[in-house]
Recover the amino acids of this structure.
């Protein structure tokens, strides 16, 4: 008989449902059919019955266990803990994880829930323990974790490969996180046409980054026009930038001349030393940036221009705005995206790679086969490089050209780099405004890189550093450290401190 749901039958009116009642025989069949293991004791933990699933999961025959107590099984070291005894002691439903420690299922991880059944006298009559083999769940969980870690490594590797592609395409060197970040920003901003302002000390690579932005952008088929605003007298600069009409001034070409904005059509215009622009030219530049049109010197017609502007300066434009030397509106127009390149002394990790890069280039150019002694490289690493990468490049070229020997020693260093090493030479040199956290991160990163390079796997590096492998993987991701395989395939520069090319 089917009872309609919600038919409103009160407790006293409950109909008999004999066909729904299980006989004790049927009940045994039901328990036997359960996929979960069942283990039933009385209130003292004496085992009354187990089903086949329990036998399968625990690898113990029922004939062996019935008649024993749950505590006996733990005492005889079949498993680590008894859910039945724990539930009896606690007087409530309890779930525990246990492990088989004896028999054919040794090592099996089991989740067991002990549920007390209370008698009318208020004492526990029975305990039903529900048992599940969770070895597979744990295995799958581990597998998932490993897959997640692998995914993180692959993502870091992909990132690394992308960066390598950029450095190859743009012929630049990037090893430090600072330089990698600059290149990533360049790659990101290359996708759009926003105006970019690149700042940094002289010789630190502003033009290199401007080149990279153009090269990685969709305008790379178009021209990249560069103009140094600080190197040209104002009146000449005006006609160079905006062009002039025929007869605009004495000495002007008869047919007039297009300016840099027009020449950079469908390409990029790189305005170097933009902080050196006169106030008059600042106004004109602002107009072009706003209207995307130029009016040639001596002309009245507006000429539409489609060029992407990348500007650079080694001056502090914000301060110049405060002092009134640079127009605020132009500053904001130029500074839509800003890329700040740190000086070389704040990213010394780039030095060994840059040395190798310039050494190879100059050796190739002059058909030399020269190399630096380790002491020279040490000095390069400790020097402050006020002229940044340009100075490093020039010093290397001068030393290679001026030295007859194949191996170049400290005595061949320029006078300003001779003499005793500064007290901090060979130590970690930190940027002037570094926080303790950043300093700790720098050391942590260097130790990780060294351990990965030396031991070749995240597992061995974790052992050497006495941390979990997952921590190594997490930190590799954080610091964008390439996988050990990659590190191994390109030996660290310090493996060959002589830098022989
Ligand atoms: N990441 C780099 N990899 C390789 N070479 C670089 C890198 N950065 C700069 N250089 C080299 O260093 C020299 C100076 O770079 P660049 O001219 O771009 O500096 P800058 O900041 O524009 O200088 P300035 O302010 O004087 O115009 C160039 O020869 C350039 O090729």
């Amino acid at each position: 008989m089917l009872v309609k749901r919600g038919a409103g039958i009160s407790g006293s009116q409950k109909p008999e449902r004999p066909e729904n009642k299980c006989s004790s025989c049927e009940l045994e069949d039901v328990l036997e059919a359960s996929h979960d293991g069942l283990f039933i004791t009385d209130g003292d933990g004496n085992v009354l019955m187990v089903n086949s699933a329990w036998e399968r999961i625990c690898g113990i025959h029922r004939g062996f266990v019935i008649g024993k107590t749950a505590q006996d099984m733990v005492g005889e070291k079949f498993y680590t803990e008894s859910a039945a005894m724990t539930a009896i002691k606690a007087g409530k439903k309890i779930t525990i994880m246990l492990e088989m420690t004896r028999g054919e299922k040794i090592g099996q991880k089991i989740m067991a829930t002990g549920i007390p059944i209370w008698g009318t006298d208020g004492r526990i009559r029975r305990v039903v323990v529900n048992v599940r083999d969770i070895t597979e769940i744990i295995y799958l969980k581990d597998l998932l974790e490993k897959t997640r870690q692998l995914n993180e490594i692959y993502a870091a590797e992909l990132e690394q490969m992308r960066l390598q592609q950029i450095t190859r395409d743009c012929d630049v060197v990037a090893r430090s996180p600072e330089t990698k970040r600059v290149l990533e920003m360049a790659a990101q901003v290359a996708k759009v046409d926003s105006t970019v302002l690149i700042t940094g000390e002289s010789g630190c690579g502003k033009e290199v980054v401007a080149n990279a932005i153009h090269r990685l952008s969709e305008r790379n088929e178009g021209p990249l026009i560069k103009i140094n605003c600080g190197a040209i007298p104002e009146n000449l600069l005006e006609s160079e930038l905006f062009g002039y009409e025929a007869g605009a001034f004495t000495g002007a070409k008869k047919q007039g001349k297009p300016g840099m904005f027009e020449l950079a059509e469908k390409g990029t215009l790189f305005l170097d030393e933009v902080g050196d622009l006169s106030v008059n030219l600042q106004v004109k530049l602002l107009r072009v940036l706003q209207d995307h049109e130029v009016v040639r010197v001596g002309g009245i017609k507006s000429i539409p221009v489609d060029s992407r502007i990348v500007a650079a300066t080694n001056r502090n434009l914000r301060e110049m705005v405060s002092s009134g030397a640079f127009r605020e509106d132009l500053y904001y127009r130029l500074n839509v995206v800003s890329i700040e390149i740190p000086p070389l002394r704040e990213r010394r990790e780039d030095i060994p790679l840059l040395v190798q890069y310039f050494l190879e280039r100059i050796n190739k150019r002059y058909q030399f086969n020269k190399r630096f002694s380790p002491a020279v490289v040490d000095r390069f690493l400790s020097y402050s490089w006020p002229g940044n990468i340009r100075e490093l490049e020039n010093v290397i070229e001068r030393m290679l050209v001026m030295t007859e020997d194949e191996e170049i020693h400290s005595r061949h260093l320029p006078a300003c780099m001779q003499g005793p090493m500064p007290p901090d030479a060979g130590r970690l040199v930190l940027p002037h405004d570094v926080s303790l956290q950043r300093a700790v991160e720098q050391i942590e990163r260097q130790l990780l890189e060294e351990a990965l390079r030396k031991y070749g796997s995240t597992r061995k590096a974790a052992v050497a550093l006495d941390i979990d492998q997952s921590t190594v993987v997490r930190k590799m991701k954080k610091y964008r450290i390439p996988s050990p395989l990659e590190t191994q395939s390109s030996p660290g520069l310090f493996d060959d401190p002589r830098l022989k090319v």
